Amino acid sequence: MTRRFLFVLGSARSDGNTELLARRAAEQLPPDVEQQWIDLTEHPLPDFVDLRHDSDHVRPTEGNAALLLDATLAATDVVIASPLYWYSVSSYTKRYLDYWSGWLRTPGLDFKATMAGRTLWGVAAHADEEPSVADPLIGTLNNSAAYMGMRFGGVLLGNGSKPGDVLGDSEALARAKTFFSREAPLARFPHEER
Ligand SMILES: Cc1cc2nc3c(=O)[nH]c(=O)nc-3n(C[C@H](O)[C@H](O)[C@H](O)COP(=O)(O)O)c2cc1C
């Protein structure tokens, strides 16, 4: 299967550090790897409604939910490009992930079986000088991948506050050059690794 990367941009501003860093990493992908970029602020999802125990979710056929579902199903690799907001993913990103819960319960989709074995990646900019403050974001993505039976390639972190700052983080730019060529093992919950 040809690899197809879906970049889901979750910053609340355009042309920010997270996207800059994600684009640096994506530049290194071979030309035969397809790329799709979706900015969640340009394609906002309505509030997520939890119907799990009331009625079946219905497959969306139009609008941003359909666009994101189809793009997700078509992707061999999903890249969550979210800035660090309150030590986790942005609300735009979180809402997209909440929609996965609905897709898991949508008859006919087989969302979990379809996504199993595919790869989840993360790219995140943070203002704090200490990268370990992003551990909750990394844990969110790792555990989500583990729940889905997906591979997890880790999170490419970069430091910056105002747009463009991340271009001064030379270590992050160096990591970006090889980020998508790293091993992405099947994700495991921390308690499974003991
Ligand atoms: C709502 C909000 C919450 C934030 N929370 C954090 C945080 O918890 N830790 C941190 O280091 N930076 C935090 N920041 C700073 C951003 O992560 C930083 O400015 C980053 O470069 C933004 O990425 P972007 O340019 O891609 O939007 C926060 C910024 C905003 C707007």
Mean residue pLDDT: 96
Secondary structure category: alpha/beta
Q: What ligand molecules are bound, each kind once? A: flavin mononucleotide
What is the helix content?
25-40%
Total count of strands:
5
Number of helices: 6
Name the strands of the widest sheet in spatial order.
Answer: 2-1-3-4-5
Task: Write out the CATH superfamily name.
Answer: Flavodoxin domain
How many domains comprise the coordinates?
1
The CATH class label is Alpha Beta
- Spell out the helices and strands N to C: EHEHEHHEHEH
CATH architecture designation: 3-Layer(aba) Sandwich
DSSP strand (E) fraction? 15-25%
Shape: globular
CATH names the topology as Rossmann fold
| Biggest sheet layout | 5 strands, parallel
**Cα-to-Cα separation, first versus last residue:** 34 Å
Radius of gyration: 16 Å
List low-confidence stretches. none
InterPro entries: Flavoprotein-like_sf, FMN_Rdtase-like_dom, ISF_SsuE-like
Keywords: Flavoprotein, FMN
Protein name: NAD(P)H-dependent oxidoreductase
Organism: Streptomyces composti
Give your account of this protein's structure:
The chain is 33% helix and 18% strand. With 194 residues, the protein is of the alpha/beta class. The chain has one domain: Flavodoxin domain (Rossmann fold). It has a 5-stranded parallel sheet with strand order 2-1-3-4-5, sandwiched between helices. Helix 1 packs parallel to helix 6. The N and C termini lie far apart (34 Å). The model has no long low-confidence stretch (mean pLDDT 96). The structure holds flavin mononucleotide. Flavin mononucleotide binds next to helix 1 and strand 4. Pfam families: FMN_red.
